[in-house]
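Priority: medium. Attachment 1 of 2:
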């Protein structure tokens, strides 16, 4: 079985962005982010997650360490 949202997962892994970092921006618990990406996101939601990951990576905040 193929994992859902593999592109979102790979973006977080490649850019060293933890789940809790994305959750912080979204204003939810990290478990909520993990639960949401279990099933395929809508194209709009997926684009939003990728945007958040890219912004966190560009900010070079302590989240990246």
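Attachment 2 of 2:
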């Amino acid at each position: 079985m193929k994992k859902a949202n593999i592109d979102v997962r790979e973006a977080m892994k490649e850019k060293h962005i933890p789940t809790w970092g994305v959750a912080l921006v979204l204003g939810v618990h990290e478990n909520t982010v993990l639960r949401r990406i279990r099933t395929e996101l809508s194209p709009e939601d997926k684009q939003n997650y990728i945007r958040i990951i890219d912004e966190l990576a560009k900010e070079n905040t302590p989240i990246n360490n």
